[in-house]
Design goal:
four-stranded antiparallel beta sheet, Alpha-Beta Plaits, alpha+beta, binds nickel (II) ion
């Protein structure tokens, strides 16, 4: 390990409680080690594909449609980037929660950027991008 930096992170109490439960189940001795592993995992996951590689992907979003202007913001973003979006599926899970799955196709950097913007939109409770490169995947066929 290189030099150590200490950071302070503000986190929702409920979320932290769930995180503590999660890391206890995984056998972590402390939060720092668990945070480091999560960060490494995310960094590795986003670095596999070259920026200009052609990829397909899905972004899954969970959000409360009562959050002010959130559905509009997500729709605006998708219209702005219609050239990388193949399709969007929307499911009304219950009175509040929506599930949206956006299917993307294009250069890795464009897909990643749009996914990041959708996921980081204020009010989105959970978001995840799953990306696959048909070219890379083809190399693994036997
Ligand atoms: Ni809905």
């Amino acid at each position: 390990m290189g030099d150590l930096s200490r950071i302070g992170v503000a986190i929702d109490t409920q979320l932290l409680r769930r995180f503590d439960h999660f890391i206890a189940q995984k056998g972590y001795q402390n939060r720092s080690e668990a945070f480091r592993d999560l960060i490494r995992d995310r960094l590795v996951g986003s670095a596999v594909v070259a920026p200009n590689a052609f990829v397909v992907g899905t972004v899954t979003l969970i959000y409360d449609h009562h959050t002010r202007l959130l559905p509009e913001k997500l729709t605006d973003l998708q219209h702005e980037h219609h050239h990388v979006i193949i399709s969007t599926l929307h499911a009304h899970l219950d009175h509040e929660s929506c599930l949206e799955v956006v299917v993307l196709r294009g250069k890795s950097k464009e897909v990643q950027k749009l996914a990041d913007r959708l996921i980081s939109t204020k009010g989105v409770q959970h978001g995840r991008l799953v990306m696959s490169s048909p070219e890379t995947a083809a190399d693994h066929h036997h």
